[in-house]
Amino acid sequence: MKTQLLIRSLSSASVLALLTAFVAALVPAHAEVVEDSTITDPVLQVGADEFSRNLSWMSESSDGGEVRWVKVSELEGEELPEDADSAETSDSGRSSDLKRHYNHASMTGLEAGTEYAYQVGSEEDGFTSVETFTTGTPGGDSEFLVFGDPQVGSGSGEPDDATGWARTLSSGLTTAEAPRFFYSLGDQVNSAGDQDEYAQYLAPEATRTVPQATTIGNHDVGSKSYEQHFNRPNVSQDHGGDGLITSGGDYWFIDSGVLFININSNNLDTDEHAEFIDEVVAEHGDEARWKVLGFHHSIYSTATHNDDLDVKKLRKAIPPVAARNDIDLVVSGHDHIYNRTFLMDSEGQPVEGSDDGREQEKDEGQTLYLTLTSSSGSKFYDYVPGLDWEAKSVHNDVPAFTRMRVSDDALRATTYEVPSGADGQVSAQAASEQIDDVELTRAGDEDPDPGANAEADADGAEADGAGAEADAGSEGAEGGTDAGSEANAAEADTDTGSEADSDAGARADAGADGTEADSGGTEATADESAEAGAGEEAGSDGGEGDPGAEAESDAAGAESDSDSHDAGAGSTDPVGGDLPRTGGEMGLPVAIGAAAVLLGAGLVLLARRRRRACSH
Questions:
Q1: Going by C-beta distance under 8 Å and a sequence separation of 6 or more, which residues neighbour residue 591?
Q2: Hey, which bits of 452-586 come out as E strands?
Q3: Helix, strand or coil for residue 161?
Q4: What is the largest CA-CA distance in the chain?
Q5: What does the alpha-carbon distance between residue 541 and residue 244 come to, in Å, rounded to a whole number?
Q6: Residue 111 carries which DSSP code?
Q7: What local confidence, expressed as pLDDT, does residue 445 receive?
Q8: Containing H/E element for 85?
Q9: Which one-letter DSSP state was computed for residue 189?
Q10: How far, in Å, CA of 535 to CA of 531, rounded?
Q11: Do residues 575 and 529 make contact, with C-beta atoms less than 8 angstroms apart?
């Protein structure tokens, strides 16, 4: 009898332990508040048009906030007046690392050609220091900058890609003349959920004073952090969509008289993208003098990703859509090499008679494609010679950027390399070296302004010298520097978890969303990927292995990316507020409860057997 009472007591205790474990998992875990809290990661971004600007920032409180702004001429000393214009957050919520809150807001009704001052924050969190920016004017000549993959974090500090990114951005801003904004073509960070990498990408002051636009890369897609850090305009809810724990969405905007269309090339539902491009051009194509399409995965690269299954699918789908919408220029990254195509037709073939010259006159339906290399310099890929679409390729393993000049008559792209110099420090990069220059005009248009031609001739002469030097370096890259490229590629191929954060999450969402997310690949070749599964259209990311087993679990709040400084089971250092237990924090109480249930079940079974024995 005593034994049976003991067994019943232990069984009851086990059930109680299980209940306690689950209650403990749901009870908020105490978070220590950091005393010197501030607003972090403020980002100035393009708006839907030239008369609006979007903002994003992170805060400690969950009460949202606002953006406040005035004309610089109306500042009271260095402070905004009490009657400054303001707009409350349009979206806010818990950040993917569960440590802060993201906030989105927009400044609208801005005047052209005007310098503005702004700050973001709230009464609870305080406000950022006052920053300034200048709006452009519709029409006339203008400029913007384009950067390939910054991928901050991919070098693990050797080289320091955060410093490299800051240096290249500084060089671009020094080289260009009052650029309207800068455009980053994906893989802003290496690990989709790594907040430290985002902080490093956003560290340059220019991210608060020069608007930026971003394209989502395969290293950005596997977390909600991308959507939280970048408040993109006109995001489609029906095209290029995201998932429960991934980012996405096609979007568009107009600036500098150019219609920019951005698609999420991690999502391989090419019919969705085609529909989006068709709709945007039909509705807004007449509002712009040029049309530019941007997405991350270059379809006409001269490096190793050109043979990936996902790239092949895009290469088949994009040219007809670009042709029927008369897209003038397509810009992409992903392959960490610079190249320019011939003018391409609707079937993805070089236009008959097209050459590799500086002056490119296009007929309707013809498109020029640019692939931009790394803008930080921590990773490059091997050059693949002999591809039909190659008009100009530079593969010196040096970070670069492209300066885009816009007029009614021409769209001109001049690309510069940014050597690090002896000190490798961020400095005014007046010595950036021009490696390519191409001017796109339309057949039947009048000749460009003579003054512009004179400037072009001067720059062209500079390009000839720099281009010759670059070509010599390119030839050398096939021999001497290819060894370094192979080493970099090999290192990239064995990045283990550092690049495994994005595409697995996209794959996981593919079924739920009804879309095919880019896998970014394992490190299999195209043939090996085909053998692994013909139905997996997502393909491979070649040198950027993203094993599916390392998908991030943003919904649970535990960033599983092995390179994330904020991730890991048992993380208990949130910034501000009480947070529900998630991820690794649930492991211990649930494990205790499970063990208690097993023990209780065993004791109950033993008790029943003893009762049967006694009854007989």
A1: 21
A2: 579-580
A3: helix
A4: 111
A5: 22
A6: P
A7: 72
A8: strand 85-88
A9: B
A10: 10
A11: no
Per-residue tokens: 326: 């008369």
Q: What's the rounded Cα separation, in Å, for the pair 232 and 45? A: 8
User: Cα separations (Å) of 419 from 164, 252, 399, 462, 465?
Assistant: 10, 33, 7, 17, 16
- Residue 77 is predicted with a pLDDT of 93
CB 580 within 8 A of CB 31: no
What pLDDT, on a 0 to 100 scale, did the predictor assign at position 575? 32
Question: What is the pTM assigned to this prediction?
Answer: 0.70
Structure-block tokens of residue 175: 């080289």
Helices 309-324 and 270-284 meet at what angle, rounded to 10? 20
DSSP secondary structure string, 428-461?
--TT-EEEEEEEEEETTSPPPPHHHHHHHHHHHH
C-alpha to C-alpha distance for 599 and 279, rounded to whole angstroms: 62
Cis status, amide bond into 450, omega within 30 of 0: no
- The answer to whether 290 and 257 have CB atoms below 8 angstroms apart is yes
Residues 6+ apart with CB under 8 A from 457: none
**CA 388 to chain CA mean position, Å:** 29
Q: How buried is residue 460: exposed, middle or buried, by Cβ count under 10 Å (0-12/13-18/19+)?
A: middle
Enumerate residues 6+ apart whose C-beta is below 8 A from 320.
Answer: 346, 347
Residue 367 bridge partners (DSSP): 344
| First-last CA distance in the chain | 16
Give the CA-trace dihedral at 502, 507, 512, 516, to 10 degrees.
110
Cβ atoms of 107 and 118 closer than 8 Å: yes
- d(C-alpha 302, C-alpha 385), whole Å: 7
| CA distances for 27 relative to 110, 159, 466, 554, 585, angstroms | 46, 43, 64, 19, 11
Task: With a cut of 50, list the residues of the chain below it in pLDDT.
Answer: 1-7, 9-11, 13-37, 422, 424, 426-430, 448, 450-591, 616
Nearest alpha-carbon partner for 71 in 60, 84, 56, 58: 84
Percent of the chain whose pLDDT exceeds 90: 59
Sign of the dihedral through C-alpha 520, 522, 527, 531: negative
Q: What is the rounded distance in angstroms from the CA atom of residue 42 to the CA atom of residue 108?
A: 18
> Which segments of 234-376 are extended strands (E)?
251-255, 258-262, 290-297, 329-333, 338-341, 359-362, 368-371
Nearest-angstrom CA–CA distance, 145 and 128: 26
Do 466 and 435 contact (CB within 8 A), yes or no?
yes
CA 613/CA 616 separation, integer angstroms? 5
